[in-house]
Amino acid sequence: MSAPLPQKALAPALSSVPPSQAQSVLPPGVPPPGAAPQGALREISPVYLCRIGQETVQDIVTRTMEIFQITRATQLPNGVTQSQAAYQDRFGKLQEHLRQLTLLFRKLRLLYERCVEMTSDLQETPAELVPYVGEEASAVRVELCSPAVLQERQEVLEKVRQKNQEMKMLMDQMRNLLWDVNAMLTLRK
Q1: 63: closest CA among 105, 21, 112?
Q2: What is the pLDDT of residue 70?
């Protein structure tokens, strides 16, 4: 399942990356541009691309957290002289983390574009993914089926509506109870 990314998919993002940094942008096992391909490159699945993208996002979050830790540990200039070596060390680390972040974002963008390209026929419009508020479920296309199935569907929908109404009432009661408890605790002080 771990097939390498096709070289043609990587070309747009790697055009702006210097050859010395190209290997750090590529997933493991993918040769840098200009290198001879190892056998016939196979097409990989969007699921694998998404997994690589997820790992890339995790790397981005980790690098960002490291940047914040470095900046948090940095002492603001308040008249105390700090050694130039420590300053240069922190500055170098920050520059390296920012450079790596740039490469990771390029890699993520490349993965996103490749995944969109591979799944363009499967994608729905965003409006279809947003839950409808206030509309009935009858907007969903239903295939013609036996009356027993349609009646069972209506019964299930009615049960779901009743359960939703019960849950709403319980949430309102819990909200009121918490409001009263917080009011009592406030008055106690």
Answers
A1: 105
A2: 87
